[in-house]
Amino acid sequence: MKVNLTQPAALARHTAFSRRNFLRGLGVSLSLPALESLIPARVLAAEAVAPGKLATTASGAPLRSAFIFFPNGAIPSAWWPTGEERDFQLGQTLKPLEESRSQLQVLHGLDHKEAYGREDGGGDHARGNGVFLTGVRLKKSATDIQAGVSIDQLIANQVGHLTRLPSLEISCDNIRKSSGCDSGYSCAYQYNISWRSATSPMTPENNPRLVFERLFGAGAPGERAANQKRRQLEQRSILDFVLEDARSMQRRVGVADREKLDQYLTSVRDIEKRIEQSERFGEIKDPDMQTPAGVPTSQLEYVNLMFDMLLLAFQSDSTRVATFVLGHDGDNRSFNEIGIPEGHHDLTHHQNDKARIAKVEKIDLWYAEQFAKFLRKMQAVKDVDGQTLLHNSMILYGSGNADGNRHTHSDLPIVLAGGGGGALTPGRFVKHGSKPTTNLFLSLADRMGVTGLERIGDSTGRLGNV
After folding, report:
1. What is the pTM of this model?
2. In whole angstroms, what is the distance from residue 173 CA to residue 295 CA?
3. Which domain holds residue 277?
4. pLDDT value, residue 406
5. Cα(32)–Cα(190) distance, rounded to whole angstroms?
6. Are residue 147 and residue 206 in the same domain, yes or no?
7. Which one has a higher pLDDT value, 361 or 33?
8. Residue 454 resides in a domain
9. Are 332 and 207 in the same domain?
């Protein structure tokens, strides 16, 4: 049962239900957002809260990082460029990125060795997702989840207080956190790339309307600020009730249930912190645009709309850390819009059939085209220091599988876009030999101003030459 938190009367009508059902239902609906203001005020607010270079460029403008995941790997022969570091030609799949070439690094030789099956056998798609931003060995179980903290959350833990939203997680896929999926692995692994702890994924939002309302508030233009203040008051009232009710339960439940309640109370307190953080930044800047209606029927419109939500989040400095799942690994979506009725995953097991390979290449190209549109929009927006949003960002685009036909996790298809505010050296095709992808994560975290992070997953050190 899900309680509508915008209607206090509805909440009161449900208090007659058992506390267990009430808390379970409210726990789902309590994953509520903080809202946003525009950049100039945000820069001042951030400096007041935490002076220094956390998530800022050398000019003092916000520095942003995003991790964008596409499913099922890519056909290697069409993906990789040819030529040398500076004198290279993009492969057929990445041709749409030509206009942003000067802001790109195509990174060769990055691996996720912990995604290989070894003694665990099948499940490469679940591992492709769950290992992508964590670099840890997943526990093969549908119920006993053990992953690791993802790089986006390690960054957000230190820089998230600078913005209304510590991080943003979005998806163009289904949302699943329980039951079994690929070869006995939990669906939590296969549908999430962002993890706040070894046992708790950061559930992405897949409805563009709800993403927009999380950023700017509900209602029509001109109404959103007042609606947000009213929502925050209602949230606080409900949180007070929930905390009081849960604490009274602690005295009457067994050890196992008490541990569950402790976890629940921790999530409630996190929501309290988000509300306080939202309030600290003052009134949001209301964009002069209508709220998206919801999930479009066209996948093309859907993906581009969610990319627009990510652009808005960075442009408004709502957050400086984001993840975007275009589709989970193993996704078997068909692409009728480009004349491909077969499922994507089925096609990737092409067994060297040229016709099937050509169709997978066409799907790979389609994803790259949408990413290229996003980069062009980032390049067109001026930041507070006169540079572009793309220059002041680090955008990783990649997949947890390399060759989908063989389920390999070495030489992953990864592009790093943006200049990192001058801290990166784009415009290159860089061959790194064979290095853990997590080494790159450490280097990106350094540029975000993160301190004290010596290792993530299977990292062996910082990745040089980025």
Report:
1. 0.82
2. 11
3. 1-30+222-283
4. 94
5. 23
6. yes
7. 361
8. no
9. yes
- What is the C-alpha to C-alpha distance for residues 155 and 30, in angstroms, rounded to an integer? 24
Residue written as tokens 């949230």? Answer: 235
Q: How far is CA 68 from the centre of its chain?
A: 7
The span from the CA of 432 to the CA of 435, in Å, is 7
The neighbouring-strand residues paired with 398 are: 69, 414
Parallel, antiparallel, or unpaired: how do β-strands 334-335 and 340-343 relate? antiparallel
Average pLDDT, the chain: 86
Cα separation, 125 vs 81, whole angstroms: 25
User: How far is the CA of 104 from the CAs of 337, 414, 464, in angstroms?
Assistant: 28, 11, 16
Contact predicate 124/115, CB 8 Å: yes
- Give me the mean pLDDT over the 333-351 stretch: 97
Whole-angstrom Cα distance, residue 438 to residue 455? 8
Helices 255-280 & 224-250 angle (0-180, nearest 10): 160
- Tally of domains in the chain: 2
Give a yes or no: residue 466 inside a domain. no
Q: How confident is the model at residue 276 (pLDDT cuts 50, 70, 90)?
A: low
